[in-house]
Fold this protein.
Amino acid sequence: MIKRKYMRTRQLKPGMRIDQSVVDRLGRNLVARGSILDEYVIESLLKLGVMNVYIQEGEIDPEEEKLVISPEAQKNIEKLHTSDRSKVKLSNSVRERVAHGIQYIYSNAEAHDLSEATSSITNDLLDAIDSNDAIAIDINELKTSDEYTFKHSVDVATISMILAKQQGLSRKDIYEIGVAGLLHDVGKTRVPIDILNKPGRLDDKEFEVMKQHTVFGYRMVKDKPDFNEAISLAVLQHHEKINGRGYPLGANENQITPYAKILSVADIYDALVTERPYKQAFSQRDAVEMIMSMTGELDMSAMKSFLESMILYPVGSIVDLCNGEKAKVVRNNPHYILRPTVVGLQTGKVYDLGDDLNCANIIIL
């Protein structure tokens, strides 16, 4: 069994396996999770100011459980199978263009053609949404980069565009919120690398510096003629909360721009489900439940659009039920994101987790 151990970098030994990624200020992977450490890498981590990291201990159990589907289960699976709502899909060529484009943006944040590069990516994402009239998101399908900052920016832009579409916003608004999503963390290019890469919790002073990335980003885009005030304010306010306890301004609900309210939900969710040097990724289920618990902080309209857009358990996926049975997802309900209809693989029993009161005590683990 693999265990995670937190160690001082000076105590690392060659041959240890790192259990986190280490990135530079542009979000580029310097050391990938799972890499075997040697003297050079350990010394490089020290030079970067990375004083603590997580390492892996133990071995992975190679034995995999085989799935057996009974005839009765197969019959019900075929009978009840209902395809998921249209999801955003990126072709390989679009992924490649988006990956190169977002890397260019964050590597050349001060470039005069920043708006041109941003526009190109946003149009690619908009075309991908339009191509199959996508109204839903499966976060696992948005794999544009292995580098956190780049992937996160594309994820937030795409999720936000779908939420905007769910809310019935205009094509112009959907485009602009995509631009804001791509640029929402561009101010992190001005945050010291030792703070960006710190594997542990930031202290109060470091967190105050990190919070300035919203102001840095705002200043970087506000005077560019192709970025209007709505886009610039969304970059500035994407960490504001409707209860006035966000940053950098402590703005209240009426002072936060609509784009920022949407970006905030997308940003929090994607950050929760993504591994970082200082934390493990939350499961998608746990992340959704955390979003649902933030009714006093997040805009209800944006949250509702989010819950109706996300596909947590894609049709065809295998899940574990609390009664010990494995089941296959056959139908999703956009109003009950955590409770799809599933069929037990051995018993063939149908569990309508969203609408059947007899299944009220059955949950997906």
In short: Strands lie at 3-8, 17-18, 22-23, 29-31, 52-57, 318-320, 326-331, 341-344, 350-352. The chain is about 40% helix and 10% strand. Confidence is low (pLDDT under 50) at residues 61-65.
